[in-house]
């Protein structure tokens, strides 16, 4: 194996480090081919750990000098570790100096110190710092950092690192320096440096406490006009965190830097956040509403890490959700609070749950299933997953549900009072929330609640109701179960908060009253399921109710309830909970899709959608009380991935054919309503990415797509012509790209000239060209044309496999996001996937491992897909020089 024999790391084996590092002084002489790094550390023995050698991690470094207290010392190498044995005895601190060199220009992994577009960047989470200098590369070693950067001033006029700039000046030979001091102790994964030709948007702000701060967003020259939204999002984040949780900005300055070569979305390095350009650059000509929304969310996420991740960090990488799950929850709350109206908040919640269901639920059911706090890993990069992030956020959300919004804020306050400046565990966080709310259900049930951290898999909540007209009672039985996952056969009952309401047949809310309650209550009530089965009996119920279960998606579970169409139509039309209104529409579509998928009818002869469903959707489109954004969500069919997860055996081509038939039928039957929706929403005035305007553009875009799909069947040329005209005349990227997508999705001949024109317009805008690539690789597969198109796209002059954004725009859009085109009966899609995983692994194992996840669920596939997929995975696994990143993924995929 290229990286040596893979060894599993186990959470149970955690021990504190044998040494602490108190201070770190780093001096960098930056050169693309040979950067020199002088690392001076002050260390002391950990008196709680038995005396042992100091073992420092390092990768791809050239070691030149090691000094202890200024004197040369003996050392040895053990694999990638520098081992020092003859160190000073006793509790006193000692100085260790290490001088190394590295080659940032050849660092294609984009971990550690690397060069992108003639500028220097770093990415140290999770274990990248060891590629910069020898160090105790683990999150529980927190030190104070002083960093001096030296470089050619003409080539690298901007020199940035964590903390506050304390000194800068000129050096000989046209060089200059900058000295940075971070006043807060941090683990090495939060270290960062940036050097290059950059320009900045600056904003000075004053906090609630009256302190002045400088905010800066650094980008390449020419991109400054695309930074206003990122800066506004940063200012909103600072204000929100101080208002909601009393957490102020704790540095003189806060910096964001954008780079086009980045494995992740962004990184929360203390005071110097490094971002993928995708989550910084936006103006109305180049970015869609979704881009604006994502920038707001990601800027918020990384800023909120300043406290939840930086000030309090993880004891070990098994606790990753301590910072990521909590911070995803915080960025979701931030976006909901900024959305304002209840409807806009609900749209955000639905979008978040849709990601959870289409990405995390399959992960829970696949070979890479793991608890929110994993018990072991081989390569930590493989555990930056939707389970850690999105499911972790749902676990935090359930805590807030159980203690209330104010109670959760009190818990956060106690958490920082106890643990500021420490590296702690998920248990410490949960304990603080519970201790701040001693009378809450969370405090009472904390040991059981923490099963959410230790048990993998998605629980199923089975519900059934029985109405007794004579007794005027309604009995709701709730049962929970969780299927086995790798390494966990049996699951104990979870704590599941169930938000519940009851409606009558006309859709009016019914009061809720259990037998032991003195009086009835209206609205939503939270019932906490803790046993394998429990029964709720409501009294004084005058008519058979329609239960609205799991309102606002109060727990990350699959709800099994045998709703009738009549009940679902009632919920869709009348439920006061927007999430369950949307969910009712999804269930109606899902039932019809599954019936058609599992049948053998000719889709051209037998419609998938019946009149009841079409009438319901017609009413949604025509309802003047519903926001456009909500309508767009209801009218969007469940994805092919989500449909596949509902089946035991998956025929991807049948799923694709059924969903396309549903799309076409919905387009044709509702043509009049789609035309009205287009006319009502196509003009949103001057561009603003606010929820109302964005929602109208989203609905207009869906309507235009549906009208072009309907035209494909009828042979009409009017709507494709209108779409092409809209594409040419659009005043913003959202409208332009929606029109282009309508032509591509409908397969109209005007798509080709539109794509050509789009590329000509935006050939110098890398992020826009990513969209151009992605749209073609993710297009519906009409007769198997997509894979040849993808192969052709990879030969395009603008394609660059080494750039993660560009690789994702083509290869991931095809393999991971286009199942109808990827799962070919001739196995050509799987052959392409295997070739690309192997090719990428030689360049960037982290990106390759993400691509390898595209076949996680191969065992569910019907033949001939199943055997062909297994053969492709086995071919990758057979490579002798695979990275640990990819080997872990494919080995687990092949395991029984």
From TrEMBL:
Residues 102-190 form the Aminopeptidase N-like N-terminal domain. Keywords: Aminopeptidase, Hydrolase, Metal-binding, Metalloprotease, Protease, Zinc. It is an enzyme of class 3 (hydrolase). It comes from the Bacteria. InterPro entries: Aminopeptidase_N-like_N (IPR045357), Aminopeptidase_N-like_N_sf (IPR042097), PepN_Ig-like_sf (IPR038438), Peptidase_M1 (IPR001930), Peptidase_M1_dom (IPR014782), Peptidase_M1_pepN (IPR012779), Peptidase_M1_pepN_C (IPR024601), Peptidase_M1_pepN_C_sf (IPR037144). It catalyses: Release of an N-terminal amino acid, Xaa-|-Yaa- from a peptide, amide or arylamide. Xaa is preferably Ala, but may be most amino acids including Pro (slow action). When a terminal hydrophobic residue is followed by a prolyl residue, the two may be released as an intact Xaa-Pro dipeptide. Its cofactor is Zn(2+). GO terms for molecular function: alanyl aminopeptidase activity. Residues 457-561 form the Peptidase M1 alanyl aminopeptidase Ig-like fold domain. Residues 565-895 form the Peptidase M1 alanyl aminopeptidase C-terminal domain. Pfam families: DUF3458 (PF11940), DUF3458_C (PF17432), Peptidase_M1 (PF01433), Peptidase_M1_N (PF17900). Residues 230-445 form the Peptidase M1 membrane alanine aminopeptidase domain. Its EC number is 3.4.11.2. Belongs to the peptidase M1 family. PANTHER family: PUROMYCIN-SENSITIVE AMINOPEPTIDASE (PTHR46322:SF1). This is Aminopeptidase N. It comes from Curvibacter cyanobacteriorum. The lineage of its organism: Bacteria, Pseudomonadati, Pseudomonadota, Betaproteobacteria, Burkholderiales.
């Amino acid at each position: 194996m290229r990286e040596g024999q893979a060894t599993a790391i186990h959470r149970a084996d955690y021990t504190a480090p044998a040494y602490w590092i108190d201070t770190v002084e780093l001096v960098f002489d930056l050169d693309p081919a040979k950067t020199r790094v002088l690392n001076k550390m002050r260390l002391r023995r950990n008196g709680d750990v038995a005396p042992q050698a100091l073992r420092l991690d390092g990768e791809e470094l050239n070691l030149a000098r090691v000094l202890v207290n200024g004197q040369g010392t003996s050392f040895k190498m053990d694999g990638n570790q520098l081992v020092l044995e003859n160190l000073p005895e006793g509790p006193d601190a000692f100085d260790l100096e290490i001088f190394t060199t590295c080659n940032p220009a050849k660092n294609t992994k984009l971990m550690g110190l690397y060069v992108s577009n003639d500028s220097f960047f770093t990415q140290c989470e999770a274990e990248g710092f060891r590629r910069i200098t020898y160090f105790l590369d683990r999150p529980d070693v927190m030190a104070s950092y002083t960093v001096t950067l030296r470089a050619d001033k003409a080539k690298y006029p901007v020199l940035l690192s964590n903390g506050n700039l304390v000194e800068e000046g000129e050096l000989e030979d046209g060089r200059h320096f900058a000295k940075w001091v971070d006043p807060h102790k941090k683990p090495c994964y939060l270290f960062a440096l940036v050097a290059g030709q950059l320009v900045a948007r600056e904003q000075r702000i004053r906090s609630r406490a009256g302190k002045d701060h400088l905010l800066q967003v650094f980008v390449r020259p020419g991109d400054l006009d695309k930074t206003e939204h990122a800066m506004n999002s940063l200012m909103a984040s600072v204000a929100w965190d101080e208002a909601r949780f009393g957490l102020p900005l704790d540095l003189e300055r806060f910096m964001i830097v954008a780079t086009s070569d980045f494995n992740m979305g962004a990184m929360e390095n203390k005071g110097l956040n490094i971002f993928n350009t995708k989550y910084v650059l936006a103006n109305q000509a180049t970015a869609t509403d979704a881009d604006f929304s994502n920038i707001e969310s990601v800027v918020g996420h990384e800023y909120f890490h300043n406290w939840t991740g930086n000030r309090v960090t993880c004891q070990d990488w098994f606790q990753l959700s301590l910072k990521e799950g909590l911070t995803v929850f915080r960025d979701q709350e931030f976006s909901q609070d900024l959305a304002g109206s209840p409807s806009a908040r609900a749209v955000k919640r639905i979008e978040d749950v849709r990601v959870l269901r289409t990405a995390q639920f399959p992960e829970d059911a696949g070979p890479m299933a793991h608890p929110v706090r994993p018990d072991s890993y081989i390569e930590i990069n493989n555990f930056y997953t939707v389970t850690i992030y999105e499911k972790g956020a749902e676990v935090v959300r359930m805590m807030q549900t159980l203690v209330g919004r104010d109670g959760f804020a009190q818990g956060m306050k106690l958490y920082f009072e106890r643990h500021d400046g420490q590296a702690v565990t998920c248990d410490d966080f949960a304990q603080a929330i519970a201790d701040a709310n001693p009378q809450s259900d969370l405090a009472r049930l904390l040991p059981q609640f923490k099963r959410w951290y230790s048990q993998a898999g998605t629980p199923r909540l089975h519900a059934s109701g029985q109405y007794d007209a004579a007794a005027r009672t309604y009995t709701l039985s709730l049962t929970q179960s969780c299927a086995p996952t790798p390494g966990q056969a049996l699951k104990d009952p979870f704590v599941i908060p169930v938000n519940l309401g009851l409606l009558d047949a006309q859709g009016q809310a019914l009061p809720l009253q259990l037998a032991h309650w003195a009086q009835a209550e209206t609205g939503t009530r939270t019932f906490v399921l803790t046993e394998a089965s429990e029964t709720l009996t409501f009294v004084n119920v005058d008519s058979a109710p329609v239960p609205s279960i799991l309102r606002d998606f109060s727990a990350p579970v699959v709800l099994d309830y045998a709703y009738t169409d009549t009940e679902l139509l009632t919920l869709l039309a009348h439920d006061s909970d927007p999430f369950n209104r949307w969910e009712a529409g999804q269930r109606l579509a899902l039932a019809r899709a599954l019936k058609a998928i599992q049948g053998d009818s000719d889709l051209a002869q037998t419609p998938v959608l019946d009149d009841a469903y079409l009438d319901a959707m017609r009413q949604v489109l025509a309802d003047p009380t519903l926001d456009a954004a909500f309508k767009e969500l209801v009218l969007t069919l469940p994805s092919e991935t989500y449909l596949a997860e509902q089946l035991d055996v998956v025929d991807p081509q049948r799923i694709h054919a059924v969903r396309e038939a549903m799309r076409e039928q919905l387009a044709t039957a509702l043509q009049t309503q789609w035309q009205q929706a287009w006319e009502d929403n196509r003009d949103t005035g001057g561009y603003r990415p606010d929820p109302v305007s964005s929602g109208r553009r989203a609905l207009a875009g869906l309507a235009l797509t549906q009208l072009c799909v309907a035209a494909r069947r009828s042979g009409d040329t009017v709507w494709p012509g209108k779409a092409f005209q809209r594409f040419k005349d659009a005043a913003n990227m959202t409208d332009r790209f929606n029109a282009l997508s309508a032509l591509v999705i409908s397969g109209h001949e005007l798509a080709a000239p539109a794509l050509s024109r789009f590329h000509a317009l935006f050939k110098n805008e890398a992020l826009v060209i990513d969209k151009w690539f992605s749209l073609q690789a993710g297009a519906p597969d009409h007769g198997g044309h997509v894979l040849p198109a993808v192969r052709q796209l990879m030969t395009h002059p603008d394609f660059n496999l080494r750039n993660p954004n560009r690789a994702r725009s083509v290869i991931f859009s095809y393999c991971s996001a286009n199942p109808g085109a990827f799962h070919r009966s001739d196995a050509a899609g799987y052959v392409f996937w295997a070739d690309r995983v192997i090719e990428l692994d030689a360049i960037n194992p982290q990106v390759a491992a993400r691509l390898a996840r595209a076949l996680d669920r191969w065992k569910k596939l019907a033949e001939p897909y199943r055997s062909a997929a297994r053969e492709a995975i086995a071919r990758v696994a057979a490579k002798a020089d695979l990275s640990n990143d990819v080997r872990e993924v494919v080995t687990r995929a092949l395991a029984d």
